[in-house]
Write a structure and sequence with these properties.
This protein is mostly beta strands. It is built from no helices and 15 strands. The chain has strands spanning about 5-15, 20, 40-50, 55-60, 65, 70-75, 80, 85-95, 100-110, 110-115, 120, 125, 135-140, 150, 155-160. The strands form three sheets. Strands 7, 9, 10, 11, 13, 14 and 15 form a seven-stranded mixed beta sheet that branches. Strands 1, 2, 3, 4 and 5 form a five-stranded antiparallel beta sheet that branches. Strands 6-8-12 form a three-stranded antiparallel beta sheet, with no helix packed on it. The radius of gyration is 32 Å and the shape is rod-shaped.
Amino acid sequence: TGGSGSYIYTFSLYRDGKEIERSGRSDYSDFEYTIDKTGTYRVFVNVYDAVSGKTASAASTDTNIFTPIVVNSFSSNIPAALLGQQIFWEADVSGGEGELEYSYTLYKDDTIVQSTDFLAGNYKYSYKPHEEGIYNVTVSIRDSRQQVVSAKSKDITVIRPLEIEKVSFSSGYAVAGKSV
C-alpha cells in the first residue's frame, strides 16, 4: 500500500534456502513458476516506486512442496479363482514422501471380510477364499506426510471347482458288441 502507483517488481524464488529463479524488472505484479522438485519454497519481492525512488521488500511464508502418491496399478494375479485357490494382489506405487505404508480391505459381495492395519513396505496382499462370491480389495497407501490415496482392484469371481459326482451307464445293463 502507499507509494505513487508506478511500481517496478523483481521476484526471487528460493528452494531450501537457495535462490533458484530471479525475474527481470517488470511492472507486472504477479510471478509464475512451474515447480518440479520437492522442497521448501519462499518467494521474495522487491517493489521499486518509480516516482519516489523508494524500495520495499517482502517475503512469502514457506510453502512445502511434496510429491503426491500415485497408484500406477493395483491388480491380482488371476481374473477368476476356485475355492481354496490363493489370490495375490500387488500395488505399483510411485511418489509420496518417506516410507510408504499399506492397508488392505477385502470385500466379498460388497461386505468387508478382512481389513489390515497400515504396515510399512507391504505392497502385496494375498487371500485364500473359502466361500463362493465376488471378491475385490481396496488398498490404501499412506506416506510420512500422512497423505493417503486408495485404489480398488477389479472383481474376482470365486467358484467351486468342477466335481464329477458319479459315472454310470444310462441303463443298468449293456450288451456286448452294442453301444453304451
